[in-house]
Amino acid sequence: MIRYTAYFSDSNLSTPQQKSSLIMLVLLGLLVFVYNLGTGIYIYNNLEPLPTCDFLYRVAFLSGVVWALKADTRKSAVQSVYCSGLLFSIGWLFAAPYHLLKTRGAVGLIPILALMGCLVAAQIMALVFVLLVTLIHT
Predict the structure, then answer these.
(1) Which of 17-21, 29-33, 64-68, 129-133 bottoms out in mean pLDDT, i.e. has the lowest?
(2) How far apart are the C-alpha atoms of 71 and 22, rounded to whole Å?
(3) 14-52: buried (b, 16+ CB within 10 Å) or exposed (e) per residue?
(4) Cα–Cα dist 13/20, whole Å
(5) What sign for the dihedral angle of Cα 55, 114, 11, 80?
(6) What is the pTM of this model?
(7) pLDDT tens track for 68-94
(8) Which of 18, 48, 89, 137 has a CA between 20 and 30 Å from the CA of residue 6?
(9) Among candidates 66, 54, 2, which has minimal Cα distance to 28?
(10) From CA 100, how far away is CA 92, in angstroms rounded?
(11) CA distances from 75 to 31, 62, 103, 129 (A)
């Protein structure tokens, strides 16, 4: 069993900010997994996913990343100069890893790697699902 206690400065998750960061990471992973699983099933069946779902995913993902990082930076003495929403809507791909590396070191990349793992797992699950459905119907 892998323990991710090094992800937080306190191993027992005693502060609300640490619990909020962990909850948001789990919710982001679930969001990434469900969206990519559904989109993968649509694409493998030669269908176009609904634009509404894509829009809602993008808004929810951006909101989740900002919420998780705001919960994480509350324990930091550094004050934000820019609006978090604007900053992450423009450059979240660079800002989130930079922030996590600066505040936690290499262990800070665990959330990003976990989200990438959810994306890959969802794509694989979608492919397996489509192949099983195809085999059953033929």
Answers:
(1) 17-21
(2) 10
(3) eeebbebbbebbeebbebbbebbbbbbbbebeeeeeeee
(4) 10
(5) negative
(6) 0.67
(7) 777 766 666 656 656 666 666 677 677
(8) 89
(9) 66
(10) 12
(11) 26, 21, 11, 43
pLDDT band, very low/low/confident/very high, at 97 (cuts 50, 70, 90): confident
Q: What is the DSSP letter of 45?
A: T
Kindly report the CA angle at 77 between 74 and 80, in degrees rounded to 5? 70
How does 54-66 read in b/e, with b if 16+ C-beta sit within 10 Å? eeebeeebeebbb
CB-side neighbour CA atoms (13 Å) of 87: 15
